[in-house]
Write a structure and sequence with these properties.
The complex is a heterodimer of chains A (about 525) and B (about 350). With about 525 residues, chain A is of the alpha/beta class. Chain A contains 19 helices and 21 strands. In chain B, strand 1 and strand 2 form a beta hairpin. The chains are: A alpha/beta (about 525), B mainly alpha (about 350).
Chain lengths: ~525, ~350
């Protein structure tokens, strides 16, 4: 008998159509089942309904059963459920910062379930907490029992979450995208840890993810979810190497691939930066002068040729985005930036404005980068209004239609508002806004990282096609080496505000010199090569 | 797409109506406001219409010399004069408004010494100069509200501009303005208002200026906070990177975010304005003597405790204005609260 058997489970909210439709799967003891799908496919809702953590009675199950160790959970009362939650079945969430109570220290968070479920005393729970924290690899665990969540890094917080989940030796661990919010190198460590612990404890694990590469490493079996239905189930080997359902095939082929657009031989230099340093004040004296500063970007020099894609790679906090903002003069900086031969440091306000049309930016999150109160026509046409005042309204409209066509949207989009579009379409609108002024350089600040995998590849293809057509130069900021490999001509690797390595794309991917660059690479392409630290 | 917008507006209206208290306050307030706008046609010592020798006259709208009706003087006809009334009645007729007194009409035919208690003639009695209280209330109410509305308009304008500049530019500008506002806010407002208004001759615009000195700061913190939040939005940065001028970014991209907070505040600013004007009038530093105002009526109530209808009329009307504005304000707040469902 399986540990968990879910049969014909449907979930719906209010009177809307079900978001999960007749999902069936089972997990045996000691097995890992991965639930894979894109955002909105209903995978998290499925996971939450197993422990009945949804907002009942607003959420309801029109059909289905959930058998946990032979016990029917859909009909279970609160008391039975409380006994199971956090005790025999535990859960790890995506965002470790918000799932830990910010006011409780590590010891209290972890020992709570033991005190509640086992009725242990404080001393006994403390000893076990320490043991668990050492097990999940929290460094200096004994000294950090009193630490508050904000004093830990993202990876460390996730380790504490795992320790909490393991506190009562659960039979089932539900992990809802446990690595998505973490940096790539940390991701690899956490996955490795989960795999080791699962073996050690003989737990069953339900692993929810959108990332097929992660799934390939950790799961025994896979269930692929699309629009609330499970479209394919099977062992990892079968599903990923011989996919049956067209959706699975699409997901597998969707990963960004191909070669970067070659740079013309005699391309002139478009952007040159020397010794860029951006400092943020840490403290100020009485008169508001900076006493201590923190260099987010520290003496970075770079050059970009016309038609070239230069990628900046690094983890969060490495200063990539700050650097890009400085290059566009959106932030104050020290050092010199030459754009097409003009020193940007000598210009300001009105004299800088004509140059702004030549350098544009596309942001990471297409939900926040478009003004929700303006129509697509107003959003895309804004730059034209500012820079080409002589253009008539009709001509401007034609130009907007042309650019929208260029990014793969039709003119029915003109009078619609951003919220009516999907993430991928919004990112296309953001690209259109940047493109309409015919810039020479576009800064792409993680343009794909908040998009679903299948959409990522489309956006990358679009960007490459536009580059080929218009000879655009891109400054591509990313932490995802797979995307970078598909688009960048040259790569700079950044860490703590400094460039630690740079080189041509094939070069840096084959023989990275610095250990940090190798770590990043290992995390992206084959994290088994990389052990826990 | 316009439909989406009106959908949102409709949802807000539904939420507004769901607050019953606010909805009825709006209806009551609306009726009184509408009536007071036509005060000349309700309370006046001139007839609405005169029919004399087969032609029609509208004394409310136009002054006619007494000679028109066969009198002797070239001056404007005084329709309270029994002689003029007889002249008109001889060759036609006239229709008086429901309250046949204007705010400055002295009723010389009182049975008792002024202030006289309510009677069929003067529904709310008369004040200490024998003027009809209801008529003065109606005119005073109109002046207070119009004054309050204009003051609200001006103080929101200055408040929004100041808050926008502070929040959008931040840094030193913000720091400087904040200190200035702290000092400004700690000045003893009422004393300064009394000082200034004792130097400047009172009138609509001078009073407006005097009260504006302190009321413009009400919206600054709200708008500033919204701007500080919104200037870090990606779409604001994107507009800046496009080279869009600051003033356009402020009004097109940032200000709509502060709109809800501002609108929610307006009824409260309006009620504050009415209170300030009343306070000045009460102390005698407001409108020139003789002008109808709520504050002046309150003072009359205080001076003539033996005539409780004065104080009662002032109290009830002020209480009505202020509570209905606060109720309306609460309903507006509910309407713009996106977390609340109707």
């Amino acid at each position: 008998m399986s540990l968990l058997e879910v049969g014909d489970l449907s979930v719906r909210f209010g009177n809307a159509d079900p978001v999960v439709k007749k999902a069936s799967f089972k997990i045996d003891k000691g097995e890992t089942l991965a639930l894979v799908g894109e955002s909105g496919s209903g995978k998290s809702v499925t996971a939450l309904s197993i422990l009945r953590l949804l907002n009942y009675p607003y959420a309801s199950h029109p059909s289905g059963s959930i058998l946990f160790d032979g016990e029917e959970l859909t009909a279970a009362d609160e008391e039975t459920l409380r006994d199971i939650r956090g005790n025999r079945a535990a859960m790890i969430f995506q965002e470790p910062m918000t799932s830990l109570n910010p006011l409780h220290c590590v010891e209290r968070q972890v020992s709570e379930t033991m005190i509640v479920h086992k009725g242990w005393g404080r001393e006994k729970a403390r000893a076990r907490t320490l043991e668990l924290l050492e097990l999940v690899g929290l460094r200096n665990a004994a000294e950090r029992l009193g630490a508050l969540p904000h004093e830990l890094s993202g990876g460390e917080r996730q380790r504490v979450m795992i320790a909490m989940a393991l506190a009562n030796d659960p039979d089932l661990l539900i992990a809802d995208e446990p690595t998505t919010a973490l940096d790539v190198t940390v991701q690899a460590q956490i996955l490795h840890l989960l795999k080791r612990l699962q073996k050690q404890f003989g737990m069953a694990m339900l692993f929810i993810s959108h990332d097929l590469d992660v799934v390939r490493r950790i799961a025994n079996r896979v269930a692929v979810m699309k629009d609330g239905e499970i479209v394919e189930t099977g062992t990892v080997g079968d599903v990923l190497s011989r996919p049956q359902h067209p959706y699975t095939k699409m997901l597998l082929n969707a990963r960004p691939s191909g070669e970067p657009v070659p740079v013309p031989d005699k391309a002139e230099e478009l952007l040159r930066a020397e010794g860029i340093t951006v400092r943020f004040p840490l403290s100020r004296d009485f008169w508001g002068r900076r006493e201590k500063t923190f260099a987010a970007v520290d003496g970075v020099s770079l050059s970009v040729k016309r038609g070239e894609t230069v990628a900046f790679v690094g983890e969060s906090g490495s200063g990539k985005t700050t650097l890009a903002f400085a290059l566009l003069k959106l932030l104050d900086f020290e050092g010199r930036v030459f754009f097409g031969g003009t020193d940007l440091g000598t210009l300001n306000g009105a004299r800088l404005r004509p140059l702004r049309s030549k350098m544009q930016i596309v942001f990471q999150d297409p939900f926040s980068s478009l003004n929700p109160r303006l129509t697509v026509e107003e959003i895309v046409g804004e730059g034209v209004k500012v820079h080409k005042k002589t253009v008539s309204a009709a001509e401007r409209r034609e130009e907007i239609k042309r650019v929208l066509g260029e990014v793969g949207l039709d003119e029915s989009a003109l009078n619609r508002y951003p919220h009516e579009f999907s993430g991928g379409q919004r990112q296309r609108i953001a690209v259109a806004r940047a493109l309409i002024l015919r810039p020479d350089l576009i800064v792409l600040d993680e343009p794909t990282s908040s998009l679903d995998v299948s959409v990522q590849a489309q956006i990358i293809d679009l960007l490459k096609a536009l580059q080929k057509k218009y000879g655009l130069a891109y400054l591509f900021i990313s932490h995802d080496m797979r995307v970078v490999k598909a688009i960048a001509d040259r790569v700079y690797v950044m860490r703590n505000g400094k460039v630690v390595e740079s080189g041509a794309n094939p070069f840096i991917f084959k023989e990275a010199k610095s250990s940090y660059a190798r770590d990043l690479m290992a995390a992206a392409f084959d994290f088994d090569a990389h052990g826990e630290k | 797409m316009r439909i989406e917008f009106s959908e949102r507006a409709r949802r807000r209206w539904a939420k507004f109506r769901a607050n019953k208290r606010g909805f009825y306050a709006l209806i009551a307030f609306g009726i009184v406001f509408f009536l007071s706008m036509g005060a000349e046609f309700i309370a006046n010592d001139k007839p609405l219409l005169v029919w004399y020798e087969d032609s029609v006259y509208f004394p409310v709208l136009k002054d006619y010399p007494e000679t028109t009706f066969g009198g002797t003087f070239e001056t404007a006809a005084d329709y309270t004069d029994p002689y003029v009334r007889e002249l008109i009645n001889a060759k036609g007729f006239f229709i008086m408004p429901p309250i046949p007194y204007s705010y400055d009409t002295v009723n010389y035919r009182l049975d008792e010494p002024a202030p006289s208690p309510p009677s069929w003639d003067n529904w709310l009695g008369t004040d200490d100069l024998g003027r009809d209280v209801l008529a003065r209330l109606l005119y005073g109410f109109r002046f207070s509200l119009l004054f309050g509305l204009v003051l609200t308009l001006f103080s929101s304008f200055f408040g929004i501009v100041a808050g926008a500049v502070q929040g959008y530019f931040g840094g030193r500008t913000d720091l400087f303005f904040q200190r200035f506002l702290e000092i400004w806010g700690n000045l003893p407002q009422l004393f300064i208002l009394i000082l200034v208004s004792s130097v400047i001759a009172p009138g609509f615009w001078t009073l407006l200026f005097v009260l504006l000195l302190f009321s413009w700061t009400a919206l600054v913190p709200v708008v500033r906070a919204e701007f500080l939040r919104a200037r870090n939005f990606d779409y604001v940065k994107a507009a800046y990177a496009l080279g869009v001028p600051n003033i356009v970014i402020i009004f097109r991209h940032v200000f709509p975010n502060a709109m809800v907070a501002t609108l929610t505040y307006l009824p409260f600013i309006l009620s504050g304005a009415v209170v300030s004007l009343t306070a000045l009038d009460f102390l005698g530093f407001g409108l020139p003597p003789g002008e109808p105002s709520l504050g002046e009526l309150v003072r009359q109530g205080k001076d003539n405790l033996q005539a409780p209808w004065l104080g009662a009329a002032a109290f009830v009307s002020l209480a009505f204005v202020l509570t209905s504005l606060v109720f309306i304000g609460e309903a507006v707040r509910d309407a713009f609260d996106s977390r609340r469902e109707p």
